[in-house]
Amino acid sequence: MTNPTLKAYPYFIYIILVVVFILYQQSILFDFVLDDEAVITKNNFVKDGIQGIPRLLDSFYWQGYWNDNSGLYRPLSLILFALIWQITPGSALLFHVIQLATYLLAIFLLYRFLLSLLKAYTPFLAFIITFLFAIHPYHVEVVANIKSMDELLAFCFGIAATYILLQEEKLSLKALLFFLLALLSKEGAISFLAIWVLMLFQFKKYSFKQVAYSLWPFAVVGSIWLAWHSYVIHQGPAVVSYTYHDNALLACESWLAQKMTAISMVGNYLLKFFYPVNMAYDYSYPQIPCAGLGDVSFIVSALIIILLLFFAIKWFYSKPIASFGILFFFISFALTSNIFITIGATMADRFMFTPILGLLLSAVFLLFEQTAMLKNFNPAHRVHLLFVVFALLFILFSWKHVQTWKSNQTLFTKHVSLVPNSARVQFNYGTLLMQAGIAGEKDSLPKAIKYLNLAHQLDPKDQGTLINLGTSNYHAGNYRVAADIFNQIINKKPDYGISLNLADTYYKLQVLDSAALLYQQALKQNIWHPNTHNFYGELLFRQQKFVEAEQTFKDGTLKQPTNAELWLNYGAALASQQKFNPAIMAFRKAYETNPKYTQALRFLANAYQSLGDVKLAQEYERLYLSTLQK
Fold first, then answer.
1. Quick one: average pLDDT of 304-316?
2. 545-630 in CATH: which number?
3. Per-residue model confidence as pLDDT tens digits over 210-226
4. Residue ranges per structural domain of the chain
5. Dihedrals φ, ψ of 89, to 5°?
6. Is the pTM of this model over 0.85?
7. What are the tens digits of pLDDT across the range 571-607?
8. Rg of the chain (C-alpha set)
């Protein structure tokens, strides 16, 4: 009798792709979020479109956005972003369409690879592994966050090269090209070399000599890439050192504590693999506490790692698929685990994108082996009920998690309670509320102060939090609190920008001499904010220093020629000195720049009245009164 699974398996991939599309189609209409700003919307090289591609090829990652060299080189995703920006600049729609299409391609390639790897067993095995991989909540960040195209491309090209190596006996130039493209997508793709060594040993039964013969061309490609990577990195500024803001492990008191904490996080990753609750976009300082030798999290994680490695070695020949899956997990996770090298992030869901394939491969294989269903499919067996339970669990969590990635607002709002001890998450939400408050939603400012205070309590050393806390208090009218905060910042590190914030605060508190001194010092350094010339000029005007006020407003109009308030104040300073003709020009400019400044019409009427031109004075008075009636 023909196994019905064999007849159905060609359609398995379409079932998976349809489910994945339904799950993630909502992301197509999402906005840019998080680091999309750094790699797309504010990246000067990417926004140059096709013309920016040469710069992307010889620049370190992030260089089009800032000059902090983090030692990364990932040009491929940035080149793709530049091409998309060339077609639809400023719109996130096409970016998300291509992101989802790339994920669907990744799932298709994975299924083809698993069918080949597991060809001795029922195709349902490959189906279950691919399906669970495709819907796992760990992957939401990679699909919903455009920046993670680097992860997707590295996986696609890496799996494509792996499939070719598994299928073909002779060297394939396509496999070499795919490996190079994977490396240009993300540095972590170098781990495929170690994975291929295992695969050739365990599944193709190669000897050491055969493995070396098959992989030496890939080692050459990797060496060429590494040389080019080093050249690009070292022709830029010095690589910056990471701090605890980047990776919370650096806040631990010793190297040993850092590594014990990294080991304890493995248990956290594995827990979320089986029960993906509280997935978040950030787990930074101090969300992950430093671990010690006596911590349960460290002990349990260390034991799990030892047991997994024990079974991987024990099953190396007897159960090569289970062994390969475990070792695949550790190899692909090694570079982002913080165990061997300390990277620029503490923990991230995207770090599990590729590694969970190994966990699924091993777990599903062992489950099928225990039920004696590796060769034949029995739809009535209870193991499939377990598959359905996990599938529904993953889909439910993924669906809810996807929705939070719609925009920075939804992301920051929803995740603030998921990782309450991450200072960065509290800071991001507080800053979001601060910006809403400055834009006119005054009710947001007390909440902004609450969450920024919480961020400050979690990380008292972060100056950015203090700046935004002072700014929020300023806009909420808490000027004395704001002044104390800005003084605290300046006392630690003098900063003309913060001095201007303090000057504005003193201006509101009517501490005019202190405000004037701070304005003078900043303007001598040609440092100013949009309101600086207005505030300082008005301060001088109140002190009846009309000449100085006139010059300050004039300087402001030169720097901000579209600022109607500056033109209005400039005209007022001129009129106060009986300079009515240039004052009239300034008032006209204010009204032309922004017709909402109807007060300029009244000033024009007064100026013409002072010049004795009654007709024009009456005309502008009528115009002014007509605006009041609208």
1. 96
2. 1.25.40.10
3. 999 999 999 999 999 99
4. 545-630
5. -65, 135
6. yes
7. 999 999 999 899 999 999 998 999 888 888 889 889 8
8. 31
* H-helix or E-strand spanning residue 162: helix 149-167
Burial (Cβ within 10 Å: 0-12, 13-18, ≥19) of residue 340: exposed
Separation CA 131–CA 18 (nearest Å): 11
Can you point out the beta strands (E) in 54-125? none
First to last CA, the chain: 86
* Cα–Cα nearest to 217, from 157, 170, 182: 170
**Contacts (Cβ under 8 Å, ≥6 apart) of 429:** 412, 413, 416, 451
Helix, strand, coil percent content, the chain, rounded in steps of 5:
70, 0, 25
Tell me the C-alpha distance between 282 and 537, whole Å: 44
Q: What is the enclosing helix (H) or strand (E) of 15?
A: helix 4-24
Classify the C-alpha dihedral 29-32-35-36 as positive or negative: positive
Biggest CA–CA distance in the chain, Å, is: 110
Question: Can you tell me the distance from the alpha carbon of 396 to that of 484, in angstroms, rounded to the nearest whole number?
Answer: 48
pLDDT at 348: 93
In this structure, what token pair is assigned to residue 620?
Answer: 């502008």
User: How many residues in the chain?
Assistant: 630
CA-nearest of 101, 155, 190 to 350 is 155
Distance CA 342, CA 340 (A): 7
**Omega before 379 within 30 of 0, i.e. cis:** no
Write out pLDDT tens, residues 399-453.
999 999 999 999 999 999 999 999 999 999 999 999 999 998 889 999 999 999 9
Q: Running DSSP on this structure, what letter comes out for residue 59?
A: S
Say what angle helices 546-559 and 564-575 make with each other, to 10 degrees: 150
**Residue 218: phi, psi to the nearest 5?**
-70, -35
Token pair of 123 as six digits: 């195709």
Residue-wise pLDDT for 513-528, tens only, equals 899 899 888 888 888 8
Tokens of 456: 């400050």
What is the CB-side half-sphere exposure of residue 485 using CA atoms within 13 A? 26
